[in-house]
């Protein structure tokens, strides 16, 4: 056998082994919360976002194939509880039997107001009597003190973040409660930059992901350490988004 034929045979075997290795990798069904700029679909239907890129890279680096879908938060939690998903993020609730990753996702809920309406919100009690819209499950996440405020306010929750911002800019509500990155993303995209007043009345919280298999959570954490040490995690946060 000539050297060239040996090289071709070796190359063919290497490609076959690579294909078999890829086929043998387990595929994880992953659910993320549909919330731009964290995880969302572009106008062309392609999934992207900061959290999407982090989770995709961390788990593929750990040797898994991933099948990622995005959901409203309520549906995300239900599908994970029903074990239709292997991995879900972010997960703000304790679910029996699940293993949680490190708290890798920094969320900062704020109270956003419009500068033209002169609504002053310096602390939680300033929300009493206001017209407020928030994300689904906000009262569960933000606790009893926030729930008490909503009892004395015109308050509603909805999944559509763009509509929340539109309600504020159309003077239908006075305050939008939500994650800062999310509110600024929609306000900047549809109403122009720097048109929100951000009122920091809630603490910043980092959320974990959750997996049914402890090995998946452990592998995710190891990959996150590598992404952090290499500087790739910081690059993902800085990458431009559509």
TrEMBL record:
Residues 1-21 form the signal peptide. Pfam families: SBP_bac_3 (PF00497). Keywords: Signal. Residues 28-238 form the Solute-binding protein family 3/N-terminal domain. PANTHER family: GLUTAMINE-BINDING PERIPLASMIC PROTEIN, MEMBRANE-BOUND LYTIC MUREIN TRANSGLYCOSYLASE F. Belongs to the bacterial solute-binding protein 3 family. This is Solute-binding protein family 3/N-terminal domain-containing protein. The lineage of its organism: Bacteria, Pseudomonadati, Pseudomonadota, Gammaproteobacteria, Alteromonadales.
